[in-house]
Amino acid sequence: MSSRHYAADILKELERTLSQINDSEMQAMAEHILDAEQIFVAGAGRSGLMGKAFAMRLMQMGLRVYVVGETVTPGISPRDFLLLCSGSGETGSLAAMAQKASKAGAPVGLITIKPESTIGQLASTVVRLPASAKEDTATSGAAVTIQPMGSLFEQGLLLAMDALVLTLMEKKEMTGADMFGRHANLE
Q1: Which class is 3-175 in CATH?
Q2: What is the pLDDT of residue 133?
Q3: Which among 31, 90, 116, 154 is annotated as catalytic?
Q4: Would you give the distance in Å from CA 156 to the centre of its chain?
């Protein structure tokens, strides 16, 4: 099959996945973000990269946002919000972060395939992204996606968070032009 056909199949998978996102879950996530004094974002592997892209957009919106693990990341407080990106909701380091944030009194948000997961149980708000987890395709050979491992979740995560950015922009009555002044200029 040609690359063009693969790309078309990927787009169909993404459309099927993203069309199933619950808008009330997205609205709740947006409210948590806007209510927070500081937002902390974390994920592992490719999900973490998608989280970093989302954190960049939040910074460009003028929100106080940090990527967990960076040297300039402060401590979390009850006035803050931790957003985790995990397909399985079982990533050990992220579950530990969720427990620490909860112990500090901070609400936890999760974007995941599995809301019933360990992190999902700790989260005050969850957005379910109905993709297939890398564990599902590795162990069962499930043909839910033609893509390897967690690619469908990671791509869906980026697009879902971009949709969340648009929701936040609408709530804040912002445009892309309002954000451009915070674009990196040391490149």
Answers
A1: alpha beta
A2: 62
A3: 154
A4: 9
